[in-house]
Amino acid sequence: MELRDLTRGLHPPVLTDRGLDAALSAVAARAPVPVHVDVDAEPRPSATTEAIAYFIVAEALTNVAKHASATRASVLIRRSRDRLRVTVTDDGIGGADPTHGSGLAGLADRVSGVDGALDVSSPPGGPTVLTVELPCES
Q1: CA 24 to the chain's CA centroid
Q2: Which of 48, 90, 116, 118 has the fewest CB atoms inside 10 Å of its own CB, making it the most exposed?
Q3: In angstroms, rounded to a whole number, what is the distance separating the alpha carbons of residues 35 and 58?
Q4: Which residues of the chain register pLDDT less than 50?
Q5: Which of 137, 130, 125 has the alpha carbon at shortest distance from 84?
Q6: What do you get for the CA distance between the two ends of the chain, in Å?
Q7: Alpha helices, H only, 30-91
Q8: Which residues contact 111 (CB under 8 A, 6 or more apart)?
Q9: From CA 54, how far away is CA 20, in angstroms rounded?
Q10: CA–CA distance from 120 to each of 11, 89, 96, 107, 108 (Å)?
Q11: Per residue in 57-81, pLDDT tens?
């Protein structure tokens, strides 16, 4: 239900109230593998940028749970001036490919719609590293 709400432009109240760190920590707590979350996104980006970053991480962790055979994952978010970098890494089997019609293709579309960039490194045998750069304003 939560991802469906996000696709309609809705997001959890904790994102609005407490920001990405709290919202993503809640997502990580529900993941079937341990997820380390490290967020430094000050000054706080716009609500739109936060919602896109939240959606990206939620979808990426869903993909980890469904496809990666991972034992752990990490989320690293850093803001540098007018860019927000989102990195999701897992120690799974690799082989993720956004050109094969997966959830990654949808993420690429969402990111490109705001002039962002998505990069996926996922050699066979892993690890998988998904990196997204988003423009952001305060």
Answers
A1: 9
A2: 48
A3: 12
A4: 1-9
A5: 137
A6: 29
A7: 47-63
A8: 52, 56, 117, 118, 132, 134
A9: 7
A10: 25, 10, 8, 11, 10
A11: 999 999 899 889 999 999 999 999 9
Sign of CA dihedral 83, 130, 102, 21: negative
Q: Tokens in use for 27?
A: 């997502």
Report the candidate in 68, 130, 58 with the shortest Cα–Cα distance to residue 98. Answer: 130
CA–CA dist 66, 83 (Å, integer): 29
Sheet bearing 117-121, strands edge to edge: 35-40, 73-80, 83-90, 128-135, 117-121
CA–CA separation, 41 and 68 (whole Å): 27
